[in-house]
Amino acid sequence: MDIAALSINLNQASLGQSVGIALAKKTMEAAQQNSQEMLKMLEAPHPSIGKSIDLKG
Q1: Which of 6, 46, 53, 55 has its CA 20 to 30 A from that of 39?
Q2: What is the three-state SS of 2-56?
Q3: For 46, what's the count of Cα atoms within 13 Å in the CB-facing half-sphere?
Q4: φ and ψ at 52, to 5 degrees?
Q5: pTM for this predicted structure
């Protein structure tokens, strides 16, 4: 294998690795944002709790 072909292969491998890392980073950021939104939703009071009393007992 000549040096030019080896250089091209190494650059392609490096590019593939960089793309994989960037994709993983975006996925992690999206997951973190989703979890933060879920935590905010869980902290908010439920709209129907405490508005009525069940007197049938």
Answers
A1: 53
A2: CHHHHHHHHHHHHHHHHHHHHHHHHHHHHHHHHHHHHHHHHHCCCCCCCCCCCCC
A3: 5
A4: -145, 160
A5: 0.62
